Amino acid sequence: MIFLFVSAHPDDLEFSCANLIRYLAQKGHEVKILCLTKGEFGIFDQDWIGPRLARIRVQELQKAAKINAIPPEKIFFGEFIDGFLKFTSESVSEIISWLNRLQPDIVFAPEAFYAYYFQTDHINCGKIMYYIFQSCQDRLLKPIRSLFFYNTLNPNFWWPFNDSTLGKQSFLQHRSQWWFIRWIMLFYSLDKVNFWWKRLGPWKYAERYRRISKISVVHNNTAEISGDDTLIKITNSDSMDSMNSNNSSIGSMIFNRILSLISHLPAFNPTRERYKVEKASSEFAQKIEKLCDRFYPE
Question: Does the residue 288 lie in any domain?
């Protein structure tokens, strides 16, 4: 069984999916990561943006994934540029090519519609995966059986856990993003507090997901992640449960709505000025200029 976790940037998965990724890998399932950009504009220093920062962030993701039991050969990078992942026919075709190469059974991607971190690359990544899942299965060599969204405000699937140490440790490997991580780490545990303990049991934390295809719960208290066939069956002792999202904690929803409002600020959704490259003669700068002309016209 092949699980594919798709992200827009190198540091996206560790905050939201680290514990599920590590569990699946340690249980012997094949887990792959597809990062569509290399985070070339992840900092604001002109001396670092571009290929130099990209090389650093590739290494950071490899170090983070290793903590979660994913080797470097299972990590793949797309050719999109940070800030320029758009919902276009070209993007759809490129990601379909990746899916045909990696041939996953189950795909995880950023929430496309009920997102609390409304960053445009994340949203477009989710929309592309949703579109492919719903409308382009005939273009895939191997159909996707199930699609899950992470970073969601409307969860219907939870992955509970007790120890957040390795999840935090993997997230902290993205040292180039310390300007951002030092603040978001303040909310790491709060974001994952198990407000659903009456249904999940006495777990301290839970990662939240939204499943697009249905979750079936069989009568022997075993939860199944299933598509056309059962993909993975894990008993309650392995910490899986599923439920209706109407039972979500009001406090958790308010907290995430606040994050959603913050993420709509211009700082999180910059325009053409954010992608200005001072070394205009470089190949990278010329490429960015063309992309800006197309997607951020003056």
Answer: no
b/e burial code for range 254-293 (CB count within 10 A of at least 16 → b):
ebbeebeeebeeeeeeeebeebebeeeeeebbeebeebbe
Residue 292 is assigned to a structural domain of this protein: no
Whether 81 is in a domain gets the answer yes
Q: How far, in Å, CA of 1 to CA of 31, rounded?
A: 8
Q: How many whole angstroms separate alpha carbon 243 and alpha carbon 79?
A: 37
Name which of 168, 180, 148 is nearest 57 in CA terms: 180
pTM of the model: 0.84
The CATH number that applies at residue 163 is: 3.40.50.10320
DSSP of 26-66: HTT-EEEEEES---TTSSS-TTTTTHHHHHHHHHHHHHHHH
Q: Is residue 228 part of a domain?
A: yes
pLDDT in tens, 261-286: 666 666 666 678 888 888 766 899 99
Whole-number Å distance between alpha carbons of 286 and 44 = 18
Average pLDDT over residues 87-92: 97
Q: Write out pLDDT tens, residues 158-169.
A: 999 999 999 999
Q: For the chain, percent helix, then strand, then coil, each to nearest 5?
A: 45, 20, 35
Query: Crossing angle, helix 13-26 and helix 51-67, to 10 degrees?
Result: 40
- Which residue type sits at 77? F
| Domain that residue 185 falls in | 2-262
